[in-house]
Design a protein that fits this description.
The complex is a heterodimer. Chain A is an alpha+beta fold. Chain A has three helices and three strands. In chain A, a hairpin with a 3-residue loop joins strand 1 and strand 2. The radius of gyration of chain A is 14 Å and the shape is globular. The model of chain A has no long low-confidence stretch (mean pLDDT 93). Chain B contains ten helices and 43 strands. Chains A and B meet through helix 2, strand 1, strand 2 and helix 3 of A and helix 3, strand 29 and helix 5 of B.
Amino acid sequence: MLRTSRDTAHFEIDPTRLDLAREFRRAPKGPHSPELRRVIHRMRWSGTGGRWCVVTVEPGVRWMLARLPDERYGEILTYPEITFTSLNDAEWHVFRIRWEALTGNALPAEMD
Amino acid sequence: MKDSSKVIGYAFPWSVAPGDEVQFHLSSDVLKSASARIVRIRCADADPRGPGMKLHHQPSPLDGEIQLASHPIHNGSYGDIPDTKGLTNLKDFSIGAWIWPTFLTGKDQVVFARGSSTAAGGWRLYINSDGCLAFEITDGTHTASLAADRPVVVREWLYVHASFSATEGKLTLTAESLHKDGGRAQHVDLSGSSSVQPNLAEVASLTFAAELSGKTAPHSPTRNHFNGKIDRPRLYGRALSGAEMRRIVDSVVPDLNDPHLIGAWDFSLDISTDAISDRSRNALHGTVRRMPMRAATGANWTGTRTNWTAAPEEYGAIHFHDDDVEDAGWPVTQSSKVPDGIRSGFYSLELTAEHDGVKTESHIPFFVRPPRGKTTADIVVIAPTATYLAYANNKSRIDQIHFEVMADGLIVLSPDDLYNHKHRELGSSVYDTHRDHSGVCYSSARRPILNQRPGAYTFNYVNDTHLLDWLEEEGFAYDVITDEDLDREGVKILKPYRVAVTMTHPEYTSKNMLDALQEYQDDGGRHMYLGGNGFYWRIAFHPTKSGLIELRRGVTGLRSWEAEAGEDCLSFTGEPSGLWRSSGRAPQRLTGVGFSAQVFDRGASYRRLPDSHLPRAAFVMEGLADDEVIGNFGLRAGGAASLEIDRADRDLGTAPEAMILATADNTGAGGIPAPEELPVLYRGFTGEESTIARADIVLTPTAEGGAVFSVGSIGWCCALSHNGYRNNVARITKNVLSRFLDPAPI
């Protein structure tokens, strides 16, 4: 035993802090400010908006989007039509989805 | 996307010498055949930013087309008593035991059964699909049964009892919980009449934690597996009340002169084996199959002693799981004699085919050691096969909710991970938990393992081959032995070598292995530890079975599960498990450094420290500038100090003469110390604010002119190929290896 729970994540993301989204866009792998860290920790802990991941298509070259199950042993969904040639792009794609799920606001298209 | 699982399998044994037979057990659900060849592994990492995949054909009689068939794997551990002569002429009987159910599956889970539940004379005590205790007996046509109306409480001890009297036409079912506070109380007292006349004279198997399916191979012989612990099961030749039977169950050694005592199984006997013993005069001994967890605390565990060897009478339970697996049991598809003259190294049976327009390339790895009693090089590389077994088919990234935030980034799965998730029958790693969330403590090589072979799973095996690639690039001759070779043969297998090299992540270590390395060092051997988080967990190899390890995760260490109280000693040997640090042998005592932190987001670089300018250590940094930054590059997180890193600590055993040559102590916010590094909770502990999360490069002169050189990072070897192998990580590694090969005392 020794289980962790997504429900323990409770940091509230301020939907007006688009500066943090821009900071993530600039450097998905960091280093990140303490404020941004709290945002991404909340996203990664809670899985709100989906437990997204990627599956290697070609090692070091291409990855496709996938979604882990919310329940243990559930199906892993893959999205062969959504692929990335950099892990930074994949991070940003998922960040967008989760920002909207957690704040109710979509990030502006021009941030891409 | 290249497929790698249309054909899967395992080689056995993993470690073979010239003249030995290596057997390949293969299965494919879709392919009738595949093209086969043996390859020698130089680099198993397909990432184009690195050296790339380098697999070299090793001509052998296996070259060519290999015929394939589909073979199943059956899961679920159970106990089997095949010989039930004590049951003949039985009219009335009682059964009783303590149980600790852990998971209500929504299906029947059998605690104790005789024969198949549909056969004449079959009976079973079980938890039904509603989670309620039930008892059933049949004559093949008619069935009588009783069932409680409330589900059992999981993870609580429950005394269970059932009886049947053919003479009185009566059956009973009773149960009583051990603890009764706060809603834990369970009380069952049921009886009923029955006209069923089972034929109990016929010999039939008894089973614990499953019932016979009535089917033979390739189908599973068992079904309806139980999840949880069973303690002190008893069978008695009279229909006793629940209270009468409980006295027999509770006594560890019942009255063996009682002529009605048919079976009194004591699971605290033969814990290190597969045997289960009956203390009664009938000697209805049996076997556990598919590796249930032994050395489990019973309902009578007092907590006074926490090692089963000190209080075996309190460890009369076995924890069964419906997903246990030990040996896939697949037939040998091909075997091959390892030819004389073959170079020692990492090898694989490569299988290629095409199915539905998709190319398959699958690998079945094995290791070739030098001829027994001989060496072919001055360097021996120790393949960390205990660690490969520990991580075998690791699904924690999928199952454990914290993994993405721990990894500080999106989880990157390989196609093999997807296959493993879908095919849970392949079994798990010791990072995973069973369906009942108890930890997986055994891992076997007798099954397909998809993540410790060439492929896209970039940890351990793939990382280790970066070291092989560099040795080949530099022209260093080397032999390869495995952890299990070291465990079985001890220091004598190391002694002929001038240098022993341990790889990127030799995390799991048995006492025999640690003793051998320590003795080698003490006798003047030179050890290069080119990894991170090494010599951390205390495991054991099975005393007699090859390719089988055990781990119990204790209450400290970076652990994905925690053993139940009293269950952190190894059933194989009786040794404590958990961290070597908890056994007084922190990694720092062997190598000068020990696990300090994870750094998954951004790798760090090392800076030289004053010790690196000492004359005794000058050879290490030869060719580097005084202020040269070391390893600010690498394939893993962009730095040579990355993933899992180690630090020196005099208190934990770093030797007084150890020289700390360089440190990577600026690991940023992603440098998260291991739990045992935080004796108290305080702020400011990450690598951004604290040097506790750091990697140290340490050189330790040892007795008899030997030395140990440690880099304290998994990422080190994945930086060796940077810039066409021309970089200061490679330079330092070569400086040290060249000096260590020189017999002059260090």
